Amino acid sequence: MHINDFNILVAGLQHVGYAETICTEMETSAKVRGTGIAKRSPEYVANKMLEGKAVIALHKDGTWAGFCYIETWSHGEFVANSGLIVNPIYRKAGLAKAIKFKIFDLSREKYPDAKIFGLTTGLAVMKINSDLGYEPVTYSQLTQDENFWKGCQSCVNYDILMSKNRQNCMCTAMLYDPEEKKAEEAERLKKITHKATLLERIEAKLRRSLKMVVAGLI
Known about the structure:
This protein is α+β, with helices and mostly antiparallel strands. Helices cover 45% and strands 20% of the residues. It contains seven helices and seven strands; from the N terminus they run E-H-H-E-E-E-H-E-H-E-H-H-E-H. A hairpin with a 4-residue loop joins strand 2 (54-59) and strand 3. Helix 3 (95-110) crosses helix 4 (123-132). The mean pLDDT is 89.
């Protein structure tokens, strides 16, 4: 099985029929892991598809293979790529990473100024997030929108979260800050420009020295 056996695309009206299957697998997967994600109804997932805020993966034979959707918090200041799930029969094919990259690009397209964040206990997801430019952060750097934190109520670790006053839990918080990335890129370009200017000065000095040698002045 190869990643090329799948189509990964922005979900739409034609994919609404998969919503119930996706929700069932989300709940089953959470129970197997022993951790929870915010429970979502098929209607909620279907609405994300209709809004163009979800990515779905389908095997070339039409079988559902994976899914992820976008949620916004704090009036669009924060974006979360939520509900990442892969059909168990298609795991180990690189789908999780491909879906995460697709939903990340969609998030950046729709909300270019938003901070993209995630909470996860999965090492594989942490690695993917890191590849996308996320950085580990404290919970205080995430959205403080009450509706987001209410979504944690369906997690088996919710009591731990509340006992720690929402400062930390079993999940690792990760954040992609576009403003921070812009600053890093500007600094990187500044260093490149500085190096280029320095090389130009060295080359100019060498050319002057060569001319003096040719002229017999040295």
